[in-house]
Design goal:
This protein has helices at residues 22-27, 40-44, 46-59, 73-78, 83-105, 126-130, 144-159, 174-187, 210-217, 236-244, 275-288, 301-312; strands at 15-16, 63-65, 118-123, 165-171, 192-196, 223-229, 251-254, 260-262, 267-269, 290-293. The strands form 2 sheets. It has an 8-stranded parallel sheet with strand order 1-10-7-6-5-4-3-2. It has a two-stranded antiparallel sheet with strand order 8-9. The protein has a single domain (6-312), classed as TIM Barrel (Alpha-Beta Barrel). The chain is built from 12 helices and 10 strands. The protein is of the alpha/beta class and 313 residues long. Keywords: Metal-binding, Methyltransferase, Transferase, Zinc. Its cofactor is Zn(2+). It is an enzyme of class 2 (transferase).
Length: 313
């Protein structure tokens, strides 16, 4: 198994992740008030997805995270699509990111001081398929075996789609992380990162200590980085510090903008940080041990550009 992030992290370099996809698509006029969320545009506006990926690469991102977070067989079946059509749309999410990456890399000026960016196929949690905000609560009532069964075929499709690695993200609980790790071990073909959504500076959203979750994943070789995402920025420094103390794997952090999400109303409220302030926080996360930093919901290319400039300073 290749480790695609290894070359990015030599000499204590920071690997810059991309920012939000769905909320950036919304900012550009897309209506994602839908159970498929960003995956809706795989059907309706794939060119817009490709354009957002391109802008993140131009802003300095070393990786694009695909529009497959909410792309599941169950969700596409509810739309009347066949099994084959659903798998094709999952593969399309990777193709769009690869096309944006390859177009970016084809320009010689874009290669100066850069490594060829990666494409990470997004794997959302079971709760994302439910489309009711469960990924921000956990407590699904499903065991590890059932969760592995849910993830297995989708992981296989995405692992063979041309992506460099998988981004298993916004995971609310240890059981789901272990279920994904089990399936990755079975399939043995691709590396992945796992990132948890957390409710404070110590616990994931289900209430388990992040330190315990990180330690439990240490033995899985296909998990090549561990961290947090879609978490309030104010908690990230503490979470990174705890994760770093319990793993030898690179720690990653890509929180949301600091705004609050109402899962029932599907709206955001509160104020977001300016890009410069976001980069200042990112510098603190790096000082605590984060090796991979980007953004999640309500962050955008300006935030990623600021993180890139911070890392180069």
């Amino acid at each position: 198994m290749l480790n695609p992030i290894e070359s990015f992290l030599t000499n204590d370099r920071l690997m810059v992740l991309d920012g939000a996809l769905a909320t950036e698509l919304e900012r550009r006029g897309a209506n994602l008030n839908d159970a498929l969320w960003s995956a809706k545009l795989l059907i309706e506006q794939p060119d817009l997805i490709r354009a957002v990926h391109a802008d993140y690469f131009a802003a300095g991102a070393d990786v694009a995270t695909t529009a497959s977070y909410q792309a599941t067989f169950e969700a596409f079946t509810r739309r009347g699509m066949s099994h084959t059509q659903a798998a094709d749309l999952m593969r399309l999410s990777v193709t769009l990111a690869c096309e944006a990456r390859d177009a970016f890399w084809a320009e010689p000026a874009n290669r100066v001081g850069r490594l060829r960016p990666l494409v990470a196929a997004s794997v959302g949690p079971y709760g994302a398929m439910l489309a009711d905000g469960s990924e921000y609560r956990g407590h699904y009532g499903l065991g590890r075996t059932a969760l592995a069964d849910f993830h297995r075929e989708r992981l296989q499709v995405l692992a063979t789609s041309g992506a460099d690695l998988l981004a298993c993200e916004t995971i609310p609980c240890l059981d789901e992380a272990l279920a994904i790790a089990d399936v990755l071990t079975e399939q043995g073909s691709i590396a992945a990162w796992i990132s948890f959504s957390c409710k404070d500076g110590t616990h994931n959203v289900q209430g388990e200590r992040l330190a315990d979750c990180v330690a439990a994943l240490e033995a899985y070789p296909h998990i090549i980085a561990i961290g947090v995402n879609c978490t309030a920025p104010e908690y990230v420094a503490s979470l990174v510090e705890q994760a770093k103390a319990h793993t030898t794997k690179p720690v990653l952090a890509y929180p949301n903008s600091g705004e609050h999400y109402d899962a029932e109303g599907k709206v955001w409220s509160g104020a977001c940080d300016e890009a410069a302030a976001y980069a200042e926080q990112a510098a603190r996360w790096q000082a605590k041990g984060a090796r991979m930093i980007g953004g999640c919901c309500r962050t955008g290319p300006d935030d990623i550009r600021a993180v890139r400039h911070m890392s180069a300073a």
